[in-house]
Automatic annotation (TrEMBL):
Its main location: membrane. This protein catalyzes the committed step to the synthesis of the acidic phospholipids. It is found in: Cell membrane. It comes from the Bacteria. Pathway: Phospholipid metabolism; phosphatidylglycerol biosynthesis; phosphatidylglycerol from CDP-diacylglycerol: step 1/2; Lipid metabolism. GO terms for cellular component: plasma membrane. Belongs to the CDP-alcohol phosphatidyltransferase class-I family. It is a multi-pass membrane protein. This is CDP-diacylglycerol--glycerol-3-phosphate 3-phosphatidyltransferase. Keywords: Cell membrane, Lipid biosynthesis, Lipid metabolism, Membrane, Phospholipid biosynthesis, Phospholipid metabolism, Transferase, Transmembrane, Transmembrane helix. NCBIfam families: pgsA.
Length: 192
């Protein structure tokens, strides 16, 4: 297994650690940081989430820079992204910090595109991430990070950056999903 794929696997392995800090109240108290009051466990969860999300950029950069792009990486990288985002949004819904309707829309798109990729892989085709899929991922990571950090910085100016990012993430998620199905409709037509 090459280094980019190992980095992707590390992202997956960080997910349960992230979830422990997000969902378990260790009674460590809170800290006030740049206008936001953040439970210390949420702050640690946010840092783990941001590090895990940063590995998405790192593995892609490393794979392209050293010509280590593989079919496994093209499949594993978006799967790792989906697992990380799913964990974050489901955890945030459970904490009443993320609207369930938005999680349903986002996760439905993720399952649908994963299904499309599975059908394509049945005929030996790999559907790589599109530019819209990448922007979708960035918007979801920013939305989750803003929520995990309790709208840090923006609390100082009373701007609901986290809420704005939820809507941007939902819009880009739906748009990129439609884009994947339009560009890859041949996969479904050929599978009949």
């Amino acid at each position: 297994m090459n280094i980019p794929n190992q980095i992707t696997i590390s992202r997956i392995l960080l997910i349960p650690i992230f979830m422990v800090f997000l969902l378990i109240d260790f009674g460590w108290g809170s800290l006030t940081l740049l206008g936001a009051v953040i439970p210390l466990s949420h702050f640690i969860a946010a840092l783990i989430f941001i590090v895990a999300a940063a590995t998405d950029w790192l593995d892609g950069y490393y794979a392209r820079r050293y010509n280590l792009v593989t079919s496994m990486g093209k499949f594993l990288d978006p799967l790792a992204d989906k697992l990380l985002i799913t964990a974050a949004f489901v955890g945030l819904v459970g904490l009443d910090m993320f609207p369930a309707w938005a999680a349903v829309v986002i996760l439905s798109r993720e399952f649908a595109v994963t299904g499309l990729r599975l059908v394509a892989s049945g005929s030996g085709e790999v559907i790589a991430a599109s530019i819209w899929g990448k922007w979708k991922t960035v918007s979801q990571i920013v939305a989750a990070s803003a929520l995990l950090l309790h709208n840090i910085i923006f609390e100082l100016v009373n701007f609901p950056f986290d809420v704005v990012m939820i809507y941007i993430a939902v819009i880009l998620t739906v748009f990129s999903g439609v884009d994947y199905f339009i560009k890859n409709k041949h996969v479904l037509l050929d599978a009949q």
